Predict the 3D structure of the following.
Amino acid sequence: MSDQVQAKEVLTPKQMDPDEARKLAKACVCSDCWGELTVLFDWRSRMSTVSCETRGCPQHGYVSRKYVERAEAKSSGELVEARTALQANGVLPRSGKSESQLLKEMGF
Ligand SMILES: [Zn+2]
């Protein structure tokens, strides 16, 4: 997934004001696994960092939820196009199923 993310869309993790961190965690998800973000507060520096909730995730940064929605809509559209093209060329048998049924079967 992260290969599709363009560098300019990714925000790099850094220490920030706790309010700013809460806003970021609400508006963004992890750029690597698209998982939810959690805010960590450092009592010593009085600053917060935003961290991915997925264990073992490298978490290189954050992307906005809107970005993820756009990317998902794009890839599901491409999947239907690819399948339709393969059926038209006789590579895949025609199933007689609608696009929405096919998307459901593929997990969308
Ligand atoms: Zn992650």
